[in-house]
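Problem: given the chain below (365 residues), write out its structure.
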Amino acid sequence: MKKIPLAKPDLSGNEIKYVNEVIAKQGRISSSGYYLDKFEGMAARRFKRKFALSCSNGTTALHLALLSLGIGPGDEVIVPTMTFAACAAAIVYCGARPVFIDSNLQDWTIDVLQLDAKKTSRTRAVLAVDLYGMPANYDILPAWCKKNKIYLIEDAAEAHGACFAGKPVGSFGQVSCFSFYGNKVLTTGEGGVCLTDDKALYNRMKVLKNHGMRSAGLYDHDIVGFNYRLTNLQAAIGCAQFERFNEFLAKREQLDRWYHEFLGGTEEIIFQKYDQKKISPVCWLFSCVVKKNSQLIRSKLTGKGIENRAFFKPLHLQKPYKRYCLNQKFPKAEYLYKHGLTLPAFIDLTKREIKRISDYLLASF
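Solution.
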């Protein structure tokens, strides 16, 4: 029986051609070169920002975003507890305190109705996550942050190509961050990008990611910086991926339709609820909520050769972060963790395979 992985990249475009070109013709395989400049330009144009800065992964993108905004010791950053650990880790790297906030049960993103209760005199930023391909509530978040003089950082790592009110994710907030890890909609293997319309923030991040050096002076370090650079080889792959972005999105939309065709109308399965006239999510990994505890269902699917995942374990339940939220409760995030199920989604997944996945899932109830 053929196993179905959760995700796999499609590298059947110009990836090999461009990588070979870097090796054979350019020789610039490290942190400068033609494809790095091209990749950043493609990202800025696609996500409608003035500036794009490539970096080594999505976590370093978040760290650069926070540092560029001056987030440091004594500051607080509101962040969903239902997200990947990199979000809280980047805050802690800065010496700041993550303030966890619950999710809503409609689209699973940050519960904006709890923002006022989480805000203190030390709150400097909200780190909003476009979770499982779904944009956060950008009707509320930008206005709330502006009113309270708080920065908005967007983590769009899981939502390449999603849109909110006609604007692409990655175009909200003072800084927005993407990951290009191997399971993302677009990949460079490892990689990230920071997007902003603020030239001063862009320049600050550019120095921070490059050992604290300004381009005008080699080995002239103005500040203590980091080596958070992407390579020209990785950027070459990224350029080939961007060339096929629309194709990838169309196929993922088809995957989503097939899953809904086979699973829709089943009372045991709940999908994200959202305003379809305003919001266009992207099918990153196909995610749903099952009314039963998902652990047994996941085990049955694994036994049939279908790779799957639970939702992210809420950060307030994890050892490094428990101390930031003692005696606090996040019932919606814990419900999503207990009942969430993530299913395979990748470009060459067939309708027949999705039917097989769906049949096994329905038979497991």
